[in-house]
Amino acid sequence: MEQIPDQQGRLRLITTAAPAVGTDVVIVQDARVRWLLRSFMVEFVADGTAANRVVNLGLEVGGNIVTIWIPRTQIAAGITRTLCFVVGITAAAPTGGLVIGGHIPPRTLVNGQMTIRTIVTNIQVGDQFGISQLMVEEWIEPLV
């Protein structure tokens, strides 16, 4: 298991482009970078198709989901929500357009072999994610 470096990394806000309609957010990092995940935020627009969606956040290695954080909130047809997964808080009910998606465990270290991604239960063809934002503490590995 990888260790978190002794020195503090730099805080970095990473913004990614919106994925294609009807697809999940997928974030791949450089192989020489390690991230300590602090938060993930994205807007999700459910199309009009009748189905309750649940937006989960997960870590994937080699095409296999190895960790998944499941919120306690469903998103109905035609609803827009901003989902937040944050270290140090628990899931909460929607307040306006905001859904606190879930708790990220402290010391969640993501290395260059991992992909951060959403996994939507009952995703529909017209569902759309907006841009996503990650707050990470980052270390760059030296060249060998």
Structural write-up:
The protein is built from no helices and 10 strands. With 144 residues, the chain is mainly beta. It has one domain: Sandwich (Jelly Rolls), CATH 2.60.120. The two termini are 20 Å apart.
Keywords:
mainly beta; Jelly Rolls; four-stranded antiparallel beta sheet; 52% strand; elongated
The stretches of 5 or more residues where confidence is low (pLDDT under 50) are none
Q: Could you estimate the helical fraction of the residues in percent?
A: under 10%
* Whole-number total of structural domains: 1
Rg over alpha carbons: 15 Å
Q: Which topology does CATH recognise?
A: Jelly Rolls
Count of alpha and pi helical runs = 0
The biggest sheet, with number of strands, parallel, antiparallel or mixed sense and barrel status, is:
6 strands, mixed
In short:
Helices cover 0% and strands 52% of the residues. It is mainly β. The strands form two sheets. Strands 1, 3, 6, 7, 8 and 10 form a six-stranded mixed beta sheet that branches.
Task: Produce the secondary structure layout.
Layout: E1 10-16, E2 26-28, E3 33-45, E4 54-61, E5 64-69, E6 80-87, E7 98-104, E8 109-110, E9 114-121, E10 128-140
Parallel strand pairs: 6-7
Antiparallel strand pairs: 1-10, 2-9, 3-6, 3-8, 3-10, 4-5, 4-9
